[in-house]
Amino acid sequence: MTEKREMLDVTVQRGVAGSIRHERFDVPARDSQTVLDVVTWIQQMSDPTLSYRFACRVGMCGSCAMMVNGVPRWTCRTHVRRVTQDGRLEIAPLRNLPVIKDLVADMDPFFDKWVAAEARHHPSAGRGDEFDPVTPENPQRAEADLGIECINCGICYAACDTVAGNADYLGPAALQRAWTLLNDRRDADRPGILAAVSGKGGCHNCHSMGSCAQYCPNELNPMRAIAGLKRETVRAAWRGKRDA
Fold it and tell me: Model's pTM, two decimal places?
């Protein structure tokens, strides 16, 4: 007598904005199976029109992030048995972002906010100048190092309820990057960064709920960085008043 194979009951969001539907698939359960394995099986074995995004498959690029049973996750490093609920999975694109098609979210708003937060390096030296050594024991360098492992997956952005309720909010990743640069002595525009993150949609909009830190797959703490920006923007404002 043939043993019955264990199956997963998987619901996947399909379609484009304005025409969203949900489709159900029976997917064979396997040992050490990841959520990305499940999505790949559906695309290869059941419906080749399913659209999704991935690249490295080893937790380095961040491009495979999706909502899994309502939680933003790295699908390539999330094992099915850790997240299934009675053998069921619900998979959708990252929330707080426009949907391109099926499981593919449009990341443009996420990266546009990095630019708005001045979360990009402002050079303080040219190619011909002497290299400024990085000293790990420097307190500012140590603070900057806490955020440099961000892989731009967008999980913190999808997890953030402030982003969900405030379209202007810059979001945890952009603000964390701004804090990293603020603590890097090689960056030449500290005033510009502080102005960008203290304005509309800036760091003072954060409600300190902590979802960004809770769900970051690299165990970073954007909330700590945002708290640092709040302190520095207030200090800058007081210095401005004293100098006026």
Answer: 0.92
Q: What is the pLDDT of residues 60-99, one digit of tens each?
A: 999 999 999 999 999 999 999 999 989 999 999 999 999 9
Q: How far, in Å, CA of 37 to CA of 40, rounded?
A: 5
Domains 7-105 and 108-243 share a fold: no
Query: Are residues 35 and 89 in contact, defined by beta-carbon separation less than 8 angstroms?
Result: yes
Burial per residue of 92-129, b for 16 or more beta-carbon CB atoms within 10 angstroms, e otherwise: bbbbbbebbbbbbbebebbeebbebbbbeeeeeeeeee
Question: What CA–CA distances, in Å, run from 102 to 69, 107, 132, 194, 227?
Answer: 16, 14, 46, 38, 36
Residue type, 180: T
Domain 7-105: state its class.
alpha beta
Which class in CATH covers the domain with range 108-243?
Answer: mainly alpha
